[in-house]
Design goal:
It is a single chain. The chain is built from 13 helices and 18 strands. It is α/β, with parallel strands linked by helices. The protein has 2 domains: 17-188 and 358-389, Quinone Oxidoreductase, Chain A, domain 1 (Alpha-Beta Complex), CATH 3.90.180.10; 194-333, Rossmann fold. The strands form 3 sheets. Strands 3, 5, 6, 9, 10, 17 and 18 form a 7-stranded mixed beta sheet that branches. Strands 13-12-11-14-15-16 form a 6-stranded parallel beta sheet. Strand 17 (362-366), helix 13 (371-379) and strand 18 form a beta-alpha-beta unit. Helix 5 (190-201) crosses helix 6 (219-228). The chain is globular. The termini are far apart.
Amino acid sequence: MRPVNVTVDTSPTIAVMKTKAAILRERNQPWSVEEIELDPPKAGEVLIKMKASGICHSQDHIKTGDLAGLTPDPPVIGGHEGSGVVLEVGDTVTSVEPGDHVVLGFIPACGRCPSCASGHSNVCDTGGAALPTGLQITDLTARHHDLDGNDLTLDCLIGTFAHHTVVNEASVVKIDKDIPLDKAALLGCGVVTGWGSAVYAAEVGAGDFVAVVGVGGVGSNAVQGAKLAGARVVAAIDPSEFKREQAQEFGATHSFASITEAMEALGEVTFERGFDKVIMTMGVGDGDALGEAFHLAGKRGRIVVTNIHPTSEQSIAVPGSLLTLFEKQLVGSLFGSANIRKDIPQLLELYTQGQLELDGLVTNTYPLEEVNQGFEDMLAHKNVRGLLVFD
C-alpha cells in the first residue's frame, strides 16, 4: 500500500490572552476600562503581569492633547510608570526570565544607538522614534487589541494601565525581589525624573540654594535629590498647602505658595544672591511662569525645565540679556537626564538604606476601575502620587 502523504503544520500556535486595560478612546473623555486581547511576546519582547502603576500628570497631557504629535493618538492604553512580574519572554531576550520582578522605564534604552552609546539613554534614538507611534519598536505593529479586533497603541510603548502588557526588552529593568513592587513602580518615572533633575541636570552641590517649582510626584523627588546632594536651602513652591507640607517631609527647608511670594523672600532666603538652581516641575509647563522663575536664579544660576509644556506653546519669555550678563543657564531635562539601567537599581538601594523616601510618596491607591477617580484627585491636588494597584 502506498503511504499517505500527511502535511504537518509546524507554525507556532498563537496564544492570545484576555486582560483588562484603561483606554483613552477620545481626547478630553474619561478613561474606559475594557477587556482587551493581548498577543504573546515576539522576539525581543516580554509579557508582564502588572502589579502597580503610578498616575502621572503626563497622562493628562495625552488626554488633553497637549502633547499632540509626540504621543500616540487615541485609542491608546495609558500608563508609563509601573512594575510587575515577568510571565513570558520572546526569543533573544536575555536580561530577564519568567518570575523576575521588573520596573518599566518610560524611555526605552536600546543600548546601541548613538545616544545610548554616548551615555544618554534617556533620549534613546530607537525609542524616541517609536514613541509617537505607540507600537512595538521591533516591527511597529501592535500586540494589544480591543474585542472588535482594532489595534491599541501604548503610552510610552508600555501601557501600564493594564493587568498585563507586552513590552520590548529595552523598556524592562530587573530589580531585587525583596523590593515592594508598589514602591518600585514609582521608579518608572516620577522618582528618577525628579531626583535626576536635581542631581544630574541641575548638578546641585553641597551648600547650594535650590528652588523647586511644583512639588507633586516629580517635584517632591527633586526636593529629595537636592537634599541628598547637600543643598543648604531647598524651597518648595506650590499653590497647594498639602503639597508644601508634604515637601517638608521630603527635605524642603522653606515653602512658598507662588513664585511671586518666593521672589519677595529672595533676599532673606538666599542672602540677596538668588537661587543657584531652579527646577521646574509643575504639572503643566507654562511659558509665563518659566519667565517669572527665571528671575529666581542668581548669577550663574541654572534653570532646569523638566515639566512638559504643551506642543502648542512655541515660545517662552525670558530676558535674553540676563543669559549673557549674568551667565544664567536654561537647561531641559527628560527623565531627569538619568539612565534606567543604572539609576533605577541605585535609587532602590538608597531606599533600602533609608536614604530615599518612597513610602510617603503614595497618598492614595486605586483599583484599575477607579482610574478616573485617581485623575480627579490628582487634578484636585489631593495626591503627591496616586497609585493603581492590581491583583
